[in-house]
From TrEMBL:
<feature type="domain" description="ShKT">
    <location>
        <begin position="117"/>
        <end position="155"/>
    </location>
</feature>
<keyword id="KW-0732">Signal</keyword>
<protein>
    <recommendedName>
        <fullName>ShKT domain-containing protein</fullName>
    </recommendedName>
</protein>
<feature type="domain" description="ShKT">
    <location>
        <begin position="207"/>
        <end position="248"/>
    </location>
</feature>
<dbReference type="Pfam" id="PF01549">
    <property type="entry name" value="ShK"/>
</dbReference>
<dbReference type="InterPro" id="IPR003582">
    <property type="entry name" value="ShKT_dom"/>
</dbReference>
<feature type="signal peptide">
    <location>
        <begin position="1"/>
        <end position="19"/>
    </location>
</feature>
């Protein structure tokens, strides 16, 4: 009986450990039973070809494949560790290399600069469930850019995006008399129709040295009111952009 039980365990154990995300849990969310990838884990493009990434970062469990929104495939190990089996410790250099080249294949898009910024404190929609089709939708894009920039890779856009994606193909529409209603509604960024926000370096205390910014995009965020808009908490400002916002 005990022998049978251990045979069963041996059969079950590898499956149980492979169909779960372990180690590096960024870009995942707990769905009640498992950690699964968020839509923004795989929303970006790889910097090199997808084929090359799949060779460099082979799927840990061929049956499930690579990270996808909502699945719980173990991340390819080389995306975050030098170890060859789980449990494996996170090796920051491996994560940096994966982020640079193959963020999508590794399910790490949410940590790339365009996706790694705070959302407003009280977004009008649930930022965690925004899908790729919402990111492309003219109905949604401007709301998402304001409330949930991290969900669609709008972190460097300062809250100003085009409602439709191809405005830039023909910039003459910005001047076309018959197109003004259209561009005001759909080509805000390309035609510079976003309501301008005064760039701000924030107010601050009386100190003269500040904690370093942890994000490289603070200048762009400040333009969008990150340092002054009450949508963001003081804690968010301090943890991302203490220097830019001049917080002691
Ligand atoms: C997410 O990544 C950061 C480094 O960017 C790391 O410090 C942190 O431990 C990771 N969090 C999880 C839950 O894996
Ligand atoms: C959570 O995700 C796992 C893996 O994809 C799935 O099997 C399970 O049904 C999901 N649970 C819920 C409550 O959605």
């Amino acid at each position: 009986m005990i022998a049978l039980f251990s045979v069963l365990l041996a059969l079950l154990a590898p499956q149980a450990s492979e169909a779960a995300i372990s180690g590096e849990l960024n870009c995942t969310t707990y769905n009640g039973t498992s950690f699964v990838y968020t839509p923004s884990a795989v929303a970006c493009s790889n910097a090199i070809s997808d084929d090359s990434c799949q060779v460099l970062y082979p799927a840990t469990d061929a049956a499930i494949g690579w990270p996808a929104a909502g699945n719980d495939a173990e991340r390819p190990l080389a995306c975050y560790t030098t170890a060859t089996a789980t449990p494996a410790a996170v090796v920051p250099d491996m994560v940096s290399a994966a982020l640079k080249n193959c963020a999508k294949t590794c399910g790490l898009c949410c940590k790339t600069p365009a996706y790694d910024c705070p959302n407003v404190q009280f977004p009008r929609l649930n930022c965690a469930t925004i899908t790729q089709s919402q990111c492309m939708s003219s109905q949604w894009r401007t709301i998402i850019a304001t409330d949930c920039p991290s969900a669609c890779g709008f972190c460097n856009d300062g809250g100003c995006v085009d409602g439709v994606v191809d405005c830039n193909n023909d910039r003459s529409i910005c001047q076309s008399v018959g197109m003004q209603d259209f561009v005001n509604q759909y080509c805000q960024k390309t035609c510079q129709r976003c309501s301008s926000t005064t760039p701000s370096t924030g107010t601050g205390g009386s100190c003269s040295s500040f904690i370093a910014d942890s994000s490289t995009a603070c200048a762009a965020w400040a333009t969008n009111g990150f340092c002054t808009n009450t949508f963001y908490t003081a804690a968010q400002r301090r943890s991302y952009c203490a220097t830019t916002c001049r917080l002691c």
